[in-house]
User: What shape does this take?
Amino acid sequence: MTDIAIVGVGATPQGKLPGSTSLSLAVDAFIDALADSGLAKDDIDGLLTFPGTTAPEQGLNYLRLGEELGMNPLLTGSLSMGGASAGSLVQMAAAAIQAGLATTVACVFGDAARTGGSRFGRASGWGDSWGIWGMFGAAANSALVASRHMALYGTTGEQLAEVAVACRYHASLNPAAVMRTPITVADHQASRWIVEPLRLLDCCLISDGGVCVIVTSMDRARDLRQPPVRIAGMGQAHTNQTLGSKDWLAVPHQRTAVHDAYRTAGVGPGDIDVAQLYDNFTISVLLWLEHAGFCAPGEGGSFVEGGRIRLGGELPVNTAGGNLSESYMEGWLHIVEGVRQIRGQAGVRQVPDAEVCLVTGRGMSLNCANAMILTGA
Amino acid sequence: MSEISRPVPVVTEENRPFWEGLAEGRLLLQRCSGCGHPRYPIALVCPRCLSKEHGWEAMSGRGTVFSSVVFHQVYHPAFADRVPYNVAMVELDEGPLIMTNVVGTDQVTVGMPVQVIFTAIEGAVIHQFVPRDPE
Ligand SMILES: [Zn+2]
Assistant: This one.
């Protein structure tokens, strides 16, 4: 178990925010998280950022944002790992604090992906080389995962729909969510194909927004404004391969990441009260459920039937709506919702007696995975 | 839409034998001289043993569908009049996975036996696959 805590979370409004920029959204999220934590700006001695898709400075995002905020940090840097960035940065912050490199680290993300016209549809492969065969867009790799999962295990489109329906139901209870009108399995099945076997309602949103997560030691956390949320365990694992690995579509590094998080926290799947599982596409949630040990390999589809992952079910998943329906903050809001559930601040979405939350992240399509176990003090 | 050209291979010193092989009707992949590992994607070194020594070896062209999807969304204007179209990962009998299209059928299933064909597009020859009878 680590002695590191999340003590502040902040988020901007989400959705289509004309006039916003990656920088303005990151600034607003930072200010919001500071207010949440009760810390002063000068208490922050670490600044780690994810440049997102629209920051023109990209890898130098930490310099641009740090100058804007007037920071002189002991620890700083940027990481571009798509939907794995949030978890990886928070884990880097925790490790750095434990190593004494900094005391209190702000992890920040802002992206005007919606109004900025980010293209998530470019060709896959290095140098866009898979465009030769018409392989474009973020959905395609997950569609390959889904196609193989369906062939091996009999997973169905209706089972994928259960994930979309659960996320949308949770978003309907979240005033900050972008997509709040409940949907049914039939609505999902009637939505158009994007890359078959994935339909429109299998896909995440594209959103403008910013999120900030502030990390410090448990000792410091105890004196701050909010109930501390302990990062009880953490893990990450990656593959840098694609076609070179027969396992690429099975994403086994997710299992490694989650089980390292379990091991460091001293918990197992039976201890998890609520889970925030990275959902770029519905199929991803099935894989996480299998890899996290909530069901056997191949059984993710049947696991999500019957409302099991909805609030009130056995394992509520993505209780704020997820990337699919809350907002596509590349997993940053999954951490925020995990924190709110452990604090008991999730309002009508609160899972009763939520003491242990699993939060996962995945980025660069299938390649980078991480997991954290959040608990109370 | 024919005036909008589709993506074509970017030929480099590293991958030239692959693309020249396709133009001659052969699917050539690298095989490591150090450990014998046949590899794809094309790479400077063997991902298993890091040897830089390799030969270009003709594959049988036989394989099976590892996974398969159908594009309905148009992401590139050159494909606007091609949707819906198949994109598949094929596992070659020799082991490597490659990205491709399975054509000549709209019933592509995981595990289906397939055989390479060589398809001329504007400015290049690319590999695609068609169904074959299992042996
Ligand atoms: Zn070798």
Summary: Chain B has a mean pLDDT of 95. The longest strand of chain B covers residues 62-71.
